[in-house]
Automatic annotation (TrEMBL):
Gene3D superfamilies: 3.30.530.20
Name this protein carries in UniProt: ACO12 thioesterase
GO cellular component: cytoplasm
Source organism per UniProt: Sclerurus mexicanus (tawny-throated leaftosser)
Top-level taxon of the source organism: Eukaryota
SUPFAM superfamilies found in the cross-reference section: Bet v1-like
InterPro entries: START-like_dom_sf, START_lipid-bd_dom, START_lipid_transfer
GO molecular function: lipid binding
Domain START span(s) in chain numbering: 18-179
Record Pfam families: START
Amino acid sequence: QAYLSRSNVAALAQLAAKPGWEITRTLDDIKIWTHEEGDVLSFKVEMQVKIPSPLAFSLLSDFKLRQEWDKHFLTCKVLQAVSGEEKIYYVTSPPRRGHKPRDFVVLVSRRQPCKPREPYTVAVRSVTLRAVPPSPEFSRSEILCAGFQIHRKSSSSCTVCYFNQATPGVMPYLAANLAGSSKSIEDTALECIKFLE
């Protein structure tokens, strides 16, 4: 578990640091970037939020609050509190037309910055728990690497970056093309800002 937690946080830091991010959309407080590598498409949503970074960190790292702003989260419950910094959650997503609803078992790792310039981190990845085998009602889905980095801007504002590395299985959810998906990403980002502020 210690290895999984470390690799969860490290994978998000590596994804954030990759060269070659391309900006695809800019709005007032939101920028959307994409990164393609083979059949893996990653996206980054950068949001300007008018609250202090420690508060954004505490709100975004509690996944039970995610349903309040993310319509892709239907239910979310804690399966296991591994430590103060790590929890395993069971998440379900609403069904898409013609598809079963999806479910996820995810490890969420929270990290406060060690140095002043480092971001707050909330890293997410799928894990396997024997106690929660796939069920026929749901399509078990996998998150390779996702999460938030929260950078302090001032005592009362921060930049929240949401990352998601989309596997081919998640791609249909992001709509058939990026134009369509950036609309859904945008709406979710606006809801996120509204929730945080």
